[in-house]
Amino acid sequence: MAKAFKYGLKGITGFLEPTERELLRSLFDDVISMLEPEDRGKQDPLAAMIGLDMDVKEPSDRALRRLLPDVVKDDGAASLEFRQLTERSLRESKIGALRAAALDLDKDELVLTAADARHWSTALNDVRLVLAERLDIRDEADADHVHQMQDWSQAEDVESYLALVYNFTTWLQESLVQAMLQSLETRP
Question: What is the C-alpha separation between 43 and 41, in angstroms, rounded?
Fold first, then answer.
């Protein structure tokens, strides 16, 4: 069984069972595959180098829209312009955090540096955003309903399984954030 992240002499540490590591690896891989941009072979090399993507559109997948939201509410043109200038680098940043966190899954005991902890926090947050969208969590009542599912033996369908996975990643992220805060409080 997983042990919550905590801050101590070695830094931020945690423990995951092999099945929990494989679950997280799978979740990280799924989100990476969602975020990987389409291959645009004939794109202008200079635009690609500086991260411009003039062909970008708002994602049709609601979960991907949660990861890559419009930045200007009710102004599609301004949001599109911002998306053209920043989406590629945002995708790359998120993918980088997910891959970095996945590399740590090769060890039973996790010992995270401050940078590792930031990658993990980003990765877990992105996984939770996707799961929340798949579970149709819109408000506190929806979240409370999902949090009632606590027993793996009661998982009867995809929704109940996703609820359990969401609760696990939520617990893991909360313990990580608490450990990160504690590490900040103890700095001289």
Answer: 6
- Angle at CA 150, nearest 5°, toward 143 and 159? 60
CB 94 within 8 A of CB 68: no
List average pLDDT for each run of 10 residues in the chain, which is 188 residues long: 91 94 97 84 65 77 92 85 87 96 91 96 98 95 88 82 95 97 83
User: In angstroms, what CA-CA distances link 49 with 3, 43, 98?
Assistant: 42, 10, 22
Count CB atoms within 10 A of the CB of residue 21: 19
Distance (Å, rounded) from C-alpha 83 to C-alpha 134?
23
Is residue 110 classed exposed, middle or buried when 0-12, 13-18 and 19+ CB atoms within 10 A define those classes?
Answer: buried
DSSP for residue 59: -
Structural contact between residues 108 and 45, judged by C-beta atoms closer than 8 angstroms: no
- Overall residue count recorded for the chain in this entry: 188
Element (H, E) at 110: strand 109-112
Alpha helices in the chain (DSSP H): 18-35, 45-50, 62-67, 76-104, 114-134, 140-147, 158-185
What is the C-alpha R_g of the chain? 18
Q: Are 18 and 92 in contact (CB under 8 A)?
A: no
